Amino acid sequence: MPRDTSRRDEVAQAATDYVLEHGLVGLSLRPLAAELGTSDRMLLYHFASKDDLVATVLRVSNDRSVAEIRALPASIDVRAAVLDLWAAMNTPRLARCQRMYVEAAALGLFGREPYASVVREANEIWIGAVADHLVASGTPRERSRRAVALLDAALMGFQLDLPLDAGDPVLEQAVRDLADAVVAIATHAG
Amino acid sequence: MPRDTSRRDEVAQAATDYVLEHGLVGLSLRPLAAELGTSDRMLLYHFASKDDLVATVLRVSNDRSVAEIRALPASIDVRAAVLDLWAAMNTPRLARCQRMYVEAAALGLFGREPYASVVREANEIWIGAVADHLVASGTPRERSRRAVALLDAALMGFQLDLPLDAGDPVLEQAVRDLADAVVAIATHAG
DNA sequence: CGGCTACTGTAGCACTTGCTACAGTCATCA
DNA sequence: TGATGACTGTAGCAAGTGCTACAGTAGCCG
Question: Which nucleotide is nearest, taking the CA of residue B2 and each C1'?
Fold first, then answer.
């Protein structure tokens, strides 16, 4: 075992870049190692197993996503917050993270580990960041949890359909409709 | 090649049942064949390749989903339509199909074939069925496309989160909020 | 009968998988 | 100096992958 983890962290970052590009499914140690200029042998030196590596990659990716959301300046109102979040999620960097998250979540649907556990944990952190952005943009704190439930689900759904109809005006309209819905939740009594 | 496809169809149905249970990722011909009481050799007799089998399974599953939606009696209004659709999708039979659809869509996100193509085609048919149900339940036809865009995305998103918080009251509230949003799209000018 | 077609079992190929045993190198530190 | 610990290359294992070649069997039709 390495006593300090700096090398391991470097590898984790590079591996995350690779996986964000190629996906989790069919991920294989040898091609990954080749791209990183190392060997499968070394990956399994730094990480206890492939699952350990995958779990690490998932966490690194989620950390990046959350950092990106938290770095967002507060939007001028709730409606703008939804649109700004959507815009942020279409940044290539964040879009890749979301795409991999969706893949991991889908794998978790069938109870596969380590996906299920890590996704559960990552989702909580992500939800918290999105909720905080809504609050910072004018959503009453006590309504933020409810608002983010619909918001997050719809955003995930959009991501799933995104490559099927990229830039589709129907999709853009749906985002505006979602913004209206979130505003309604955040402002009306219910 | 078989001249009539009846045997192939039987196998396709049985294979679909198996895949709905075990998932697409990591699907392997030998275990599947064993469960069906046959051999990998025979699967590749009936289907040109594993990809051909997978594409067939995807289509069979989608056909089942769509049939289930189309068999739904018209709801009393748009709001009820959303709630009824949500209830239908939580039927074990349909929930399984949706789960696998989400898995296939996630695989398609990375451009993997045959997932990407079949998912695109399946999605269109599914969207059509949901839109028709909305129309039958009082949505003006010209607003149905717009309504279904948000509705479908949110429903997919809920499916993704479902195992993470099954029966969660927050989720139930989100479904009601979604229903309100769809009603708004279906009735208000926009 | 003889041929044709649908179907099936056996065996195996070439390849990839995660993972490990073993033997080393090299810098640091007592 | 010599030992310790971090790190790395080579080689290989056992298992599993999709797929195929080959050799059938059984039933139908002329």
Answer: C6
Closest-CA distance, A158 to chain B, in angstroms, reads 6
| Non-local CB neighbours of B94 within 8 Å, separated by 6+ positions | B64, B65, B68, B88
Instruction: Name which of B77, B87, B119, B83 is nearest B101 in CA terms.
Output: B119
Å from the B8 CA to the C3 C1': 26
**CA angle, B142 then B152 then A146, to 5°:** 115
pLDDT digits (tens, 9 = 90+) for B93-148: 999 999 999 999 999 999 999 999 999 999 999 999 999 999 999 999 999 999 99
**Residues across chain B:** 190
Q: Which residues, 6 or more positions from B133, have their beta carbon under 8 angstroms from its beta carbon?
A: B69, B70, B72, B74, B75, B81, B85
- Of the candidates A25, A120, A184, which has its C-beta nearest B107's C-beta? A25
Per-residue pLDDT tens for B138-171?
999 999 999 999 999 999 999 998 666 667 899 9
